[in-house]
# Entry
Amino acid sequence: MSELHRTHVLGILLASKRSRTGSVWVCFREVGSTPHRRTSLKTSSKSRGSAYVSRMELRPFLMCFALCVVYATSKPTEKKDRVHHDELLSNREHDDAENFDYDHEAFLGQEEAKTFDQLTPEESKERLGMLVERIDEDKDGFVTVEEMKKWIKHAQKRWIYEDVDRQWKSHDLNGDNVVSWEEYKNATYGYILDDPEPDDGFSYRQMMSRDERRFKMADQDNDMKANKEEFTAFLHPEEYDHMKDIVVLETMEDIDKNGDGLIDLDEYIGDMYNQENDATEPEWVKTEREQFSEFRDKNKDGKMDKEETRDWILPNDYDHAEAEAKHLVYESDADKDGQLTKNEIVDKYDLFVGSQATDFGEALTRHDEF
# Structure
């Protein structure tokens, strides 16, 4: 059995059944992938290993398990945030009169924008032209605002696709270019279901049922087999509109301790803060109590229902990618027809990538991207 799978199985033992930040998954996220990485902190993941686990192999990890339980139940030093926000496209100021650094990072991704400092203008134009052909999804010779927006979102979410690629290799066991539910179930749970259920109320079978429910939601053709896009939606449901209901449902199940299908104030605060024996709450907890009463509980019945929970964790944020896509098209659209040709983009290469200071990074140096 691989080291990755040992840590994965231990991750199952440690699960607090939460699908966002603040759960114990953070302890193991850097080491091995778990089924709950899908909506947890945005850290890099590694692929799973073998599905076969023995009780003997788990024993060396029990001490680590105990330490993580202490960590999980101790009072947090920072507020847990379950809200899904679109991240900024760049930390740089957007001032085209000064430079195009913001546009470069928005178009290519922040990390990749650091890697092309050595490119000449000719190299930048050539590689940008190659990239345009990929952005033009329908191959009609034009890049629309929608296609530009989709590309920007892809560039900003590249870590997600890399995560999916790693996990795909260890779940598509028969190499048929789909991951069936049986393949995922066997690789994720294996023989651990033969072990007795823990005494703390956590159930492997309940977790598996929850995974199966999410898998079915992602499986849009209902064949219990996930293609790459469906598997991405399964692992990262917060990125897909048709998966938003499952994100809300899982969040409510995590927080709703009395099982009434609603989130009251005590459950809301208890998910963020373990008061223990302290008589004085931090100021941020008091603020959250006020936020719950004034803004979260919109109908003032003392609880959050499904729609109120959705408004809380999935707010309608300003769409930075759409704004940047419109900006790039407007600035490059020489004939003002609302869409861009390859020549129009390449002619404004310094806006998109510049020279001696551009991105593309792996997107332009890996041959499999083109």
Summary: Confidence is low (pLDDT under 50) at residues 1-77, 357-370. The CA atoms of residues 296 and 311 lie 8 Å apart. The longest helix spans residues 121-135.
